[in-house]
Design a protein that fits this description.
mainly alpha, Cyclin A, domain 1, 4 domains, RB_A, nucleus, repressor, RNA polymerase II transcription regulatory region sequence-specific DNA binding, RB_B
């Protein structure tokens, strides 16, 4: 039998895991009861965590079977209730991979345990068959994965440069993910039959390969492969020839046992239709007529993110394994000696414990992130010149801050002690390293500065924020294992204001000096954008207290810099924050206008957006997202100009943005105390009432200039050239480049003046806006995009 202390700890850990996974209490209570019933003789005590995982899996499977039977019985009575609303409350909508990762058990061990558990619990044949099918599908997938890796090495070569290797890695992940998504769209024979699975795999590899050939002078293509077009290496090669090109025979030749005829039949009869379905659902972007342009011009990253979202929805089922994690190691050929030697040299500088920590990560990108940090030998103490400039009490205060945040993190994250300790050891080293670089740069700029005043007096705004930023980087590395700790969980854990947190990000990016990988820097930019677009506009943000009486400033008012940014909260710190905010708004609005062919109306839309922020910021921006105001401003301008663009069209184009989230247009804050609603309801009930009069009276001299610009031969190229960001390496913050701002009307004599709050009727009726701007959007008929695939997104 389990000892009393061990029993309490194991059950407490089990309950914590179930709560993280949002499993209903009645289910995990039944699992505990079943475990105790089968463990009367104490046989299961030695591996209690594994058996409890089997118990909760059994309960989830039985709950799923019961729900599905009940759904069939109640089909007629529940046909008016949307499926996604019912599914949202079902606990079995979690992937088996997520369950196993939470309990720390691998799939092979789990399948062996389940075979014994079914015998102990005397589960029915249907349940046992479910486990057998799971094991069979996994075996087939592993065989297909071996073929995929072997063929991939023949088609591509691993380049030496970092940028090309990143492109190579994305193609590697995209090909496997496309195969998984398409296979799930096909009838069951494609998943239960090895031959058919190979045919689908070859079709996916061929489609990705031909699209990769469209990238001009791509150095990831293996030119020795016989499937390369004869004149592909020539400068005058016509890419349009690839529209009808097929490498099917050459790729099938890499699997001698697979006839090319069967693969072509699979492609024409099933694969082609499945891919067209992905284009129609906008899960793939490109030329759907010839199934090309999936990779070139930066579309690969968008398609990879879109397929990942689609696949995540599919595997949100207790019967499904997330087979993306099987793609653990990047393939490498014997010819790629230089990268291999470099990786071997890095591994020699890493201890055995850290090497084991790296091996637990399933993503190559995250392994690279962790390897980079561990290779640089992060310090575990303060730099000598910093500790020498501080008193013993000050040094103790800094160390105490680390310990307190470590304890708070351990209790809030509900991780095992050794796991949380290993995470925070990385945080400590990263904090000391970044603090050293930031302080050294500050001393070079201001030699007379007092470190005690800088570090101790700014304890909350600088020191704690820097520790939290380091923790966020470490959490990102282990994001696949600690899915419940995604940003902004950290801000809630340590009660950090998003406005204060976003200020530290620029310092870290500027002074990291090669310490962080590109992926970690990109992650910092992503969370900075998250802070700027929504988190700093929450109800309790200090920005609302600062601008309570004056209102938010215009874009023009914050463009002049008040001095260089530093670690102190300078008077211009708020202007810097708002400057980044307006730049981000301008950047996203410009791309949406480009996609919707509204460049000629860009200036008017910008005036509408700026007015909604300046005059009605507290009513429209508080507890909402910048992207919501962008879409509403575009639609208001479209309604004014009576253009044939619907709100659904705007949402469709928004979904194609890399930063798009379905919650932005499906869960919009309506009012305090009321449930969230969709963006069309928000537009009708809140937005148009405050903005209609201004939009009707809006006139700007620059609009005519915008029309002339739009009528030029290459307006899109001119816009993108103006929006190109400066880059001086890793030391430049992406949001501060002034030339990235496209043309915004800032003329003092512009007739598009900001209307004061008193000039706008507080009780502006909807009838007024309907009279001026046409009919109101119908709320009875929603765009299909608002109803499609709402579950788990």
């Amino acid at each position: 039998m389990m000892k009393t202390v061990d029993k309490g700890t194991i059950l407490q850990r089990f309950v914590a895991n179930c709560q993280k996974l949002k499993i209903e209490e009645i289910i995990w209570q039944k699992a505990i009861k079943t475990f105790h019933k089968l463990n009367v003789d104490g046989v299961l005590s030695n591996e209690a965590d594994d058996w409890l995982c089997c118990a909760v899996y059994s309960e989830l499977q039985q709950t799923k079977m019961k729900d599905m039977r009940q759904e069939v019985v109640n089909t007629k009575t529940d046909e008016n209730e949307p499926w996604d609303k019912k599914a949202r409350c079902q606990s079995w909508n979690i992937s088996l991979t997520k369950l196993l990762r939470s309990f720390g058990i691998n799939i092979n061990k789990f399948l062996k345990r389940m075979e014994h558990w079914n015998w102990l619990a005397q589960n029915g044949e249907v349940f046992q068959q479910e486990v057998n099918d799971l094991e069979r599908r996994l075996g087939i997938t592993l065989l297909l994965l071996q073929h995929y890796k072997r063929i991939f090495q023949k088609l591509y070569v691993l380049p030496a440069t970092a940028d090309s290797r990143a492109h190579y890695q994305m193609i590697y992940e995209f090909g496997w993910l496309l195969f998984l998504v398409v296979r799930n769209e096909l009838p069951p024979f494609a998943t239960t039959n090895l031959i058919n699975g190979c045919q689908v795999l070859v079709c996916a590899l061929e489609l990705v390969y031909v699209n990769a050939l469209e990238v001009y002078k791509s150095d990831v293509i293996n030119t020795a492969f016989q499937g390369v077009p004869p004149s592909w290496c020539n400068k005058d090669f016509d890419i349009d020839l690839l529209h009808k090109y097929s490498a099917m025979d050459a790729i099938c030749g890499l699997i001698p046992e697979l006839p090319a005829k069967g693969a072509r039949i699979m492609k024409n009869a099933f694969f082609h239709k499945a891919v067209m379905g992905l284009f129609m659902d906008q899960r793939l972007l490109g030329n759907d007529r010839v199934m090309r342009e999936l990779i070139k011009d930066g579309i690969l990253e968008v398609n990879l993110a879109s397929l990942n979202r689609s696949y995540a929805v599919h595997v949100s089922d207790i019967s499904e394994i997330d087979e993306r994690v099987l793609l653990k190691h990047t393939p490498s050929s014997s010819a790629d000696k230089e990268p291999a030697l470099r990786e071997e040299k890095q591994q020699n500088n890493i201890s055995e414990a850290n090497r084991k920590l790296i091996s637990e990560l399933t993503s190559d990108t995250q392994r690279d992130n962790l390897t980079k940090l561990l290779t640089d030998e992060l310090p575990q103490t303060l730099a000598t010149y910093i500790s020498g400039a501080l008193s013993k009490s000050d040094v103790k205060l800094l160390q105490q801050s680390l310990l307190e945040m470590c304890d708070k993190f351990e209790s809030a994250a509900l991780l095992k002690t050794n796991t949380s300790d290993s995470r925070f050891n990385l945080v400590r080293g990263l904090y000391y390293q970044l603090l050293d670089k930031i302080i050294a740069a500050e001393l070079r700029r201001r030699p007379t500065i007092k470190l005690a005043q800088l570090l101790i007096q700014l304890q909350r705004t600088f020191n704690v924020a820097l520790i939290a930023c380091c923790l966020q980087l470490v959490l990102h590395i282990f994001e696949a294992q600690d899915t419940q700790l995604k940003f902004p969980w950290l801000l809630k854990c340590f009660n950090i204001d998003p406005y204060e947190f976003q200020k530290i990000i620029e310092l870290v990016v500027r002074h990291e000096c090669g310490l962080l990988t590109r992926d970690l820097i990109k992650h910092l930019h992503d969370i900075e954008a998250q802070c700027l677009t929504s988190l700093i506009w929450q109800n309790n943000s200090q920005l609302w207290r600062i601008y309570a009486s004056t209102g938010l400033p215009r874009c023009q008012d914050v463009q002049s810099s008040s001095g260089q940014e530093n670690v102190r909260a300078a008077p211009g710190a708020i202007n810097i924050c708002l400057r980044k905010f307006y730049h981000l708004a301008n950047q996203r609005l410009a791309y949406l206008c480009k996609c919707l062919s509204l460049l000629a109306s860009y200036t008017k839309i910008w005036h509408i957006l700026e007015h909604s922020i300046i005059v009605h910021g507290y009513e429209l921006l508080r507890e909402r997202h910048l992207d919501q105001l962008l879409m509403c401003a575009i639609y208001l301008c479209v309604r004014k100009g009576q253009l044939r663009i619907s709100f659904s069209d705007i949402i469709q184009q928004y979904r194609r943005q890399p930063h798009a989230q379905s919650a932005i247009y499906r869960a919009v804050h309506l009012a305090d105390g009321q449930p969230n609603t969709d963006i069309i309801t928000f537009y009708n009930r809140v937005y148009v009432q405050r903005m209609a009069e201004y939009a009707c009276d809006l006139h700007c001299e620059q609009s005519s200039v915008g029309n002339e610009c739009a009528s030029t031969q290459r307006p899109l190229q001119e816009l993108t050239s103006k929006m190109r960001l400066k880059s001086n390496g890793n030391n430049t913050n992406v949001f501060v480049s002034p030339e990235a701002m496209p043309r915004i009307c800032m003329a003092n004599g512009c007739r598009a003046k900001i209307i004061t709050e008193t000039a706008t009727p507080k009780n502006l009726k909807r009838a007024h806006s309907n009279e001026e701007l046409g009919k109101q959007i119908s709320t009875s008929k929603r765009p299909n995009i608002l109803r499609r695939r709402t579950t788990f997104q």
